[in-house]
Protein 1
Amino acid sequence: MSEKHNGQGCDQELLFELAMGKLSQKQAEEVSAHLEICSECASIYEGLTELDEGLQDIKSVELDSRVKEDIWENLQETIERSSRKSEVKDAWNTILHSGVTYAAAAIIILMVAAVIIYNYMTPIGYSEAINGVEISTNASDKDIYFPVGAKTKFGARTKASILNADKDNGIIFLAKGSVKSKINKLEKNQKYEVHTEDAVFSVKGTAFEVTKNDPEKSEIVVMEGTVWVEPKGKNRKLMVLQAGESATVLGEQAYLHGIFDAGKDALNNSRFEEAESQFRHYLDSSREMDNSEVEYLLADTCLQLKNKNCAKQYFHKVSQTENKTRAQNAYAALVQLYSASNEEVMVKKTWQKYLKRFADGNFAEEALFYLAKDECNNKKGNYYGQFMKISKNDELKERLKTCCLKQGE
Amino acid sequence: MDKNKLITLGYRDEKLILSGIKKGRNQAFRALYEQNADKVFRLSLQILKDEVLAQNIVQDTFMTVFNKIHTFREDSKISTWIYRIAYNLSLNELKRVKRQQSKVKELSLSMNDENETGNTFDKIYSKQQVKLVLSAVEKMSEIKRNTFMLYYVEEKTADEIAHILEEGRGTVLKRLNRIRAELIDFVKSRNQENEAFTMGKVGRS
């Protein structure tokens, strides 16, 4: 660093690094010596050391030890659950790799070969699919076999057309009604698709049903395997559905509902661990902007599992939703949780946040009563006045007055 | 000695931790958690400015670490890899929060977002000196803020930051130079303001 006394031409970045403790001892000594004779650099250095003091405070920020322990316990639970799943998988692998199974495997291969040959023939009771044919059913179903290996049931009152039916392709356009399909595993060059006005449903070895009874939307239920759902439109997003899942395609969006229903069913029947897993699975795969309904149910499930941290986490998320009723309920639930663990500061903050958003909300009276009691020392306080103004509950008003009088004494 | 520190005493070295986790040893994972949870929390708190959301990121980060440990290529320190996961998760969460907030604003609900998230953040960062740092770094772009925090708070090297932010080392070094210059300008203008204020006071008296 050149030694000028007015700061001109000095390398001020070195001052920065000195203040932040990033210089070697030798460099630090040199720069410090320069500070003795350069008032401009000394004044900048002084300012920078204030920054560094602030940084030291930021460095000392840590997770609250109780929260840290809670997070660790949650991690443990999730890890244990996933370990149990992999143990089951390992057990299966052991069975599959044992010598005894080789003979059985040979028999299975023969049986599969027979099934494949059988499937390339049109099964009894099925008509063969023909390119360009229009399907129109009345009161009864119609069974059609596609050479690609798909047994297709066109439901009653269905209108559809077969766009392609050869050994590599099975493509149906469904205008109205339902198409239920059971497909053998397809080869790479083969495809089987059901098109509607809203989406394309394509499969890789599966059983599924597409329904089109509403001009605005299409429904799909997957019984086996995997189905790819591709809504039509510029902003479409591909959704992959697994067995047991179902979805609605509305506009450019596919909405998953199979897991949600399964989760709700598990929750209603007190299978809380299963409910938690279903709701988490739903949230992982959801592309919706607002998942607050599921998040609320997950928070409720966490409460049942006595996992307070998880309940707080999801009620907190829900409290930010645009759905006013749900958000208000989430705030109230958070207050209860914080009260139960004697976190009075958090109770207060939660009610304050609640009032900022829902000054006339369902729990406004309760929130104001709590906050007014909290600031009882000052009767002219904001919350005291507000409570007295909005509350029609004379008993509560009296209680607040008495409480504040006592505090005043 | 702290109980948690005692549990993880055998795992001081990153390589030991990594091999322990791969062998399914819970204590190794605990050691990794103990050594990095606070750092992850600080990083996500800087980005999200919300204590609860930052706590969620800690949990999500370590869950991801556990699930993806077999994909860790060991081309960086494991702590750098964890930072990278936490950084990406925090940015995603920030996007989600912003999206949600803009939707709420669209609907003209009377929700003051800055105050909503600011409360928990302020609780931790209320000291005068810390406010000074924040007022200086708040003027920077998001990427500069994150680079600054990683280098000067978390004391990561330029190489490690490049790995976390998925960009070149040269880019990081250039950005650090610009950050220093901006902060020096900040201090200079603050000094000038103080000087003007003192002169004014003297003039009046």
Note: Residues 65-97 of chain A form the longest helix (33 residues).
Protein 2
Amino acid sequence: MVFLLSGCGSVSVYDVGKHFDMVSKTVSAAQKASRDITDEEEYYVGRSVAARLLSKYPLYRNQALTEYVNYVGQAVALHSDKPNTFRGYHFAVLDTDEVNAFACPGGTIFITRGMVKMIQNEDELAAVLAHEIAHIGNRDGISSIKQSRWTEALTIIGTTAAKNYGSPEFASLVGIFEGSIDDVFKTLVVNGYGQAQEARADAAALTYLARSGYSPEALRIFLERLASAGKASGGGILTTHPATAERIESVAAAMPSERPDRALVAKRTSRFQKKGI
Amino acid sequence: MSRSLIHTAFAASFVAVLLFVVAAHARTLSVIKETDVIRLDCRFSSQPKAKVKYGNPLEVITQEGDWYKVRYQKITGCIHQSAVEEKQVNIKGVSSSVTGKGYTSVSKEEIGLAGKGFNKEVEEAFQERHPDLDFETVDRIEAFRTSDETLRKFIKNGGLNEP
């Protein structure tokens, strides 16, 4: 290095060291600037997406059902590829006849009352939740934030001024945060995920169901019911989670070979029915 | 100086260097969840031994599949890999524990970036712009927690697999 830089005339050995230090600091800063969204940041995006969803759909206030959905969801989430999120998984029911489910980044999962009505047993409920848990683990929601937006955010985050509440930089960061919420919300509610993302979430859901002891077959059965129902109102699941014949075929092809214990499925169906769903 | 004294001094120096090398290579993880627990055995259904918080340093003893066996404040136990990261977590305000317990690897740049990004303050400013959004209900949803014991019973009664 000394040899190469000696051509620059005034660069001494000392200067080389200083220069190298400066370069390595720049590289280090660049590496930091290209970082992914952290679990904590994902959590804050997810909270705001959840708040927006709750302004569109009210919460279904049924304590027994909410508890039950949470236990089923936790039983699956702990067998997922991402059993931990910044503040854990939370499950809630939205009070609407629309048939849908939403995975907010960071771990809050909503299922609509309309969706719950279409579900016929605990294993099907677990299948729907497993699919949504997979979207969170795969970061499908958070990855819908435009790359240019996140790049701009990182530039601002790299400035000292961004830390000062009330500074123009901080205001810009809040604006980018707001735009990020829009990106995720549109994906969840309007556009839906891509087919590849849905296929990946289905495949992961089958694995999580098998690991947790639920019947993976429940996913295929429920998708078939969704497809035959053939309708979903207001940006419903057929828009955001299209139950196409191709998707059902893929799920059937990837079905784990183990067969569930029918007696245990019946036992779980019994406790599902006792919830008065 | 006698020969035995020289030998003793040499041996002491060697041990000191050895200890330094071992300490320098101790693998440290940081908790990236808001809160979590270290468990007796490496599975989620195992008994919790100690609570840990975001940013707490955990010394790795061994790795067993998706789990780490760790030491935290003289307590040993297991924590799942998805709850930790192999880097120093930037803690808002850079508390004395960050600078006072051997966190010399935290650079000035990292300290400068501490607490930045999409955080509580950004969310609060967003809330001010959108007072119509229902964050109270979000808080209520997050406040609901399933207890380990009840979840264990739910899993057992449903013939499900323990995590």
Note: The longest strand of chain A covers residues 90-94.
